[in-house]
Amino acid sequence: MHSRDSAATKQRILKHARQQFARHGFAAITVKGVADAAGVSPNLITRYFGGKDGLFLAAAQVEIPVEISFDGPRSSLGARLAASIVQRWFGSPGEDPLLVLQRASGERPEAAEALATFLDTNSLEPLHRYLRESGLDDAEARNRAAAIDAFVLGVSTRRRVLRAELGDPAELRSWLATTIQRLADGR
């Protein structure tokens, strides 16, 4: 097998693993089930990822370019963040690694720790820095960032992890934008 073929096979396995972990959490997923969905031998998953735990960790690698939302004034932060959030939630809901981590965080301590670390590094801290740089004192910036972070995680958990309907994207974006902006403004 050529390296290009193995890279494509790995990506196909990860795609199916993300879909299954995102839909069903960690416990319900088997290496054989992912292998069957990806059209490969379970041995390939063991060879590439070392088994279910390694597959989970690879499937749960998350990137959120949250700093893109910080390009602009604080007065429109809510609209920018809401647009980014809604695009992520509706864009590829069955393959979102963040959803993989959220669903598994109740079952796997390492998933909960990975999610907390990820949110601190990629959401809470950049948001805190942005708000501080927008003119707030450090404590106020930290408090507002924590409120926005908790709000978004709560909505995400309620609507994505607990499997309630996400609702209409435009209404959700508008509501998120208004609420995030109130938290950013301290109102």
TrEMBL record:
Protein name: DNA-binding transcriptional regulator, AcrR family
InterPro entries referenced in this protein's UniProt entry, alphabetically: Homeodomain-like_sf, HTH-type_TetR-like_transc_reg, HTH_TetR, Tet_transcr_reg_TetR-rel_C_sf, TetR_C_16
Residue ranges of the annotated DNA-binding region, renumbered to this chain: 30-49
Single GO molecular function: DNA-binding transcription factor activity
Superkingdom: Bacteria
A Pfam family it matches: TetR_C_16
Keywords attached to this entry: DNA-binding, Transcription, Transcription regulation
Residue intervals of the HTH tetR-type domain: 7-67
